[in-house]
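Fold this sequence, please.
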Amino acid sequence: MTDPITDMFNRIKNAQAVNHPTVRIPHSKFKFEVAKVLEKQGYVSKARKQGRKTRKYIELNLKYHEDKTPVISEIKRMSKPGRRMYVKGNEIKPVKNGFGMSIISTSQGVMPGDQAKKKNIGGELICKIW
């Protein structure tokens, strides 16, 4: 697998397309940090580690509106293995006029774009979510 983050996003999209309540993703520290940001921002209800040793995975409880439409309508991967995308702290822009968010990997960890902008920290722009 060349891009595990894109695989994670595709698993989330596919699970939401058929209204699954949870989705399992192979574990890595970086993917778990991204999942924790999604949980803190309210896009998923719960993110937790499961399994042991070589069989670890991340289990995400997905959120839906009352009409059973997913809370996450789109996840767009910005920085890819073939073309990395970096932003400075003052270049971070709101996503969908504030109705979405971006996830940025900074020197101080993985955080939402608005938090990185407040701290004036740049980094790798991982994705945009709305």
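Residues 15 and 45 are 14 Å apart (CA to CA). The first strand starts at residue 22 and ends at 26.
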